[in-house]
Amino acid sequence: MQTYDVVIIGAGHNGLVCAAYLLKAGYSVLLLEKRSVPGGAATTEECMPEEAPGFKFNLCAIDHEFIHLGPVVEELELGQYGLEYLYCDPVVFCPNPDGKYFLGHHSVEKTCAEIARFNQRDAQKYAEYIAFWQRLTNAITPMFNAPPKSIIDILGNYSLNKFQDLFGVLGGVDKTLDLIRTMITSPADILDEWFDSEFLKAPLARLASEFGSPPSQKTIAIGAMMMSMRHNPGMARPKGGTGALVTALLNLVKAKGGTVLTEQVVEKVLIDDGRAVGVRVEGGTEYRANHAVISNIDAKRLFLQLVDAPDIDSADPELRERLDRRIVNNNETILKIDCALSEAPRFERYNHQDDYLIGSVLIADSMRQVEIAHSEPSVGNIPDSDPSMYAVVPTMLDPSMAPDGKHTLWIEFFAPYQVAGAEGTGLNGTGWTDDLKNKVADRVIDKLAEYTPNLKQSIIARRVESPAELGARLGAYKGNYYHLDMTLDQMIFLRPLPEIANYKTPIDGLLLTGAGTHPGGSISGMPGRNCARVFLASQKPLAQTFAKAGKSMKAMAKSLGLV
Ligand SMILES: Cc1cc2nc3c(=O)[nH]c(=O)nc-3n(C[C@H](O)[C@H](O)[C@H](O)COP(=O)(O)OP(=O)(O)OC[C@H]3O[C@@H](n4cnc5c(N)ncnc54)[C@H](O)[C@@H]3O)c2cc1C
User: Fold this and answer.
1) Residues with CB under 6 A from ligand 1
2) pLDDT at 135
3) What is the mean pLDDT of residues 194-201?
4) Is a pLDDT exceeding 60 seen at residue 144?
5) CATH assignment of 332-476, given 3.90.660, 3.40.50, 3.80.10, 3.30.1490?
6) With CB atoms counted within 10 Å of each terminal CB, which end of the chain scores lower, N or C?
7) Which of 34, 36, 245, 360 should be mutated for ligand 1, with most atoms under 8 A from CB?
8) 366: number of Cβ within 10 Å
9) Which of 378, 465, 454 lies closest to 419, judged by CA?
10) What residues contact 167, with CB distance under 8 A and at least 6 apart?
């Protein structure tokens, strides 16, 4: 039996980030990935080699913001392993049916000037709005970059300017209470409070809904970050596609002696006397882990599918039932469309500029349309009578992703995993069939073509992936690419459940990482890095832990000017 210090289940970007930190600390690591391509929801693939050779597609993630709120890229020196980020500017374009449009630039000032063309008051409010969310983001980022229950780690991440921002947003009692009030309201509440214009509110609501809930959902006001981060730290894409981040991580993992085996579906975690000692993959091969098994798949899949019930029950008799029933899933996921294009789409009615296509293109005609787009999936309906969508022409920023002069189109359309009234039919009983997914894709493309009349004639080939197919490809429960819904009740020290929120589980040597752990889904690498820190801390003698705590306190005191 092959033996490693650590075996990681899944080579998503978080599994790879975690592996990189462990390898750098001197541990031997094996990653086992079920697909033939590592990267999970962060791959770039030539997925239509016959109809569209030479066109490369980001099958899932495209825009990277969160990773720039943390130190992963710099600490792992990913530039040295081939990663180059290209920054988007403009960052977002949203045409409105009334002829107005929202064009967001990297610069807040330039964005305000665009808004002022249509509404002077909203332009002024926009600058204040973004300043507030940026201060808040700066104030809470230290918590993202540390295990949620490790006060010492969190405090160690605060510099003077982050403390200033924290106290700035908290202020006195009333200000603090008002901040709490803000955080428990919905994106729609906040947008109505700040702005008047639909052409501005609708795209901001659409971006806030990237957290996976409708804009009216209370407690996710934080979704406002999705626009604020486009100004700072900015929105970027790896040159060559999101998969280039994974390639850089793989280069690093291999350079440090790590092993990545693909087409290895882990079917069981081996537990011996209450301790995780390895895994077995389909086909029966077993791999032993001397120190830990780390799961890049979420707790629900891990414990309900890969661990024997008696092993869990003897560690925590309530865990299985809590994972099964307490974790919520609102049924929303994505129908993904990728197209190879002979030419780039043109927004003729909006004084077309190629620059509009650099960032994300949103079809968000009104707050109502966005609300329907994100509320209908939760009751199993497909919101395709008037589709809202998030589209990107990646080749406008990075022409290397298609043959010369040609383009690609990436469309994300939110849709239910389980279609109402179609239970037990289609793929995995979800109701999704080839016929249904293509009909929905036709409607989505018809809608986009209302804005870009040259679109349909330019499509060379297209690939449509239904929510059921996406779920099967990622292995994600109900196609949830965030592993668990990103609602407040499942965030920070509540993610996935309070008792397993610090990357450790009740089974010794079995740890969790990935989107289903703090701070959640998206391309950030933070769950991978935080989990590695928890593992490494658990391997250190107590004296070293105290020494580290002392260092953190000293750094904090220094940043506050106390020493
Ligand atoms: C269409 C789409 C668009 C998105 N766009 C963005 C975006 O623009 N920006 C952004 O920040 N985020 C985006 N996301 C979300 C983001 O891609 C994910 O949240 C993130 O990639 C999750 O990474 P992870 O490493 O935690 O998990 P995953 O990527 O899910 O990795 C888990 C890995 O485990 C493997 N696995 C599963 N089961 C097993 C098993 N039994 N044995 C072995 N291996 C197994 C999987 O194959 C996978 O490789 C998007 C997601 C989708 C679906």
Assistant:
1) 9-15, 32-35, 40-42, 60-64, 66, 265-266, 296-297, 334, 336, 412, 470, 474-476, 481-482, 514-515, 521-523
2) 93
3) 98
4) yes
5) 3.90.660
6) N
7) 34
8) 18
9) 378
10) none
Strands 101-104, 266-272: parallel, antiparallel or unpaired by DSSP? unpaired
Residue 50: partners with Cβ closer than 8 Å, 6 or more residues away:
none
What 3-state DSSP class applies to 335? strand
Atom from ligand 1 closest to the CA of residue 520: 19
Find where tokens 């006397």 sit: 273
Tokens encoding 359 = 């960032």
Give the residue-averaged pLDDT of 531-535.
97
Gyration radius of the chain over CA positions: 23
492 phi and psi angles, rounded to 5 deg: 50, -120
Best of 18, 266, 296, 529 to mutate for ligand 1, by most ligand atoms within 8 A of CB? 296
Torsion of CA 300, 498, 482, 368, to 10 degrees: 120
Where in the chain are the domains? Answer: 2-45+71-83+241-328+480-550, 107-234, 332-476
Q: What is the pLDDT of residues 53-92, one digit of tens each?
A: 999 999 999 999 999 999 999 999 999 999 999 999 999 9
Please give the Cα distance from 280 to 268 (Å, whole number): 5
Digit-coded pLDDT (tens) for 383-432: 999 999 999 999 999 999 999 999 999 999 999 999 999 999 999 999 99
Give the Å distance between the CA of 543 and the centre of ligand 1. Answer: 37
Residue 234 CA to residue 236 CA, distance in Å, equals 6
User: For a substitution probing ligand 1, which of 246, 522, 526, 529 has the most ligand atoms within 8 Å of its CB?
Assistant: 522
DSSP state at residue 419: P
pLDDT in tens, 153-182: 888 888 878 777 787 777 788 888 888 899
Q: Of all atoms in ligand 1, which is nearest to the CA of residue 14? A: 25
According to the model, what pLDDT value does residue 152 have?
81
Nearest atom (ligand 1) to Cα of 482: 19
Give me the amino acid identity at 263.
Answer: E
Ligand 1: centre distance to CA 298 (Å)? 11
CB 212 within 8 A of CB 373: no
In terms of CATH, what superfamily is 2-45+71-83+241-328+480-550? FAD/NAD(P)-binding domain (3.50.50.60)
CA-proximal residue: ligand 1, atom 48 (nearest): 40
- Do you find a cis peptide bond into 496, omega within 30 degrees of 0? yes
